[in-house]
Design a protein that fits this description.
Layout (H helix, E strand, L loop, with lengths): L2 H13 L4 H24 L10 H8 L2 H7 L4
Length: 74
């Protein structure tokens, strides 16, 4: 088993001993942690264009809205 699997198994075992009221708090905590993880991933992209050459940036952004409109994943 991996370390991650071991930790998950330990958490599940401990959850069985938690009261219903505490389970609700645990659920809120898990949601909060999950949200932070998502936010951290998004924020990891901040500043990536900071050092981009102006000409390259202009080429990259030209027609951006038109390309988005044509994107089939809409």
């Amino acid at each position: 088993m991996t370390v991650r699997a071991d930790i998950k198994e330990e958490i599940i075992k401990r959850i069985d001993n938690i009261s219903d009221e505490m389970l609700l708090e645990l659920l809120d905590l898990a949601k909060n942690l999950e949200g932070k993880s998502r936010k951290d991933r998004i924020l990891s992209f901040s500043g990536i264009w900071r050092d981009m050459d102006d000409e390259l940036f202009d080429d990259f952004t030209k027609g951006l809205h038109e390309r988005r409109d044509k994107d089939i994943r809409h």
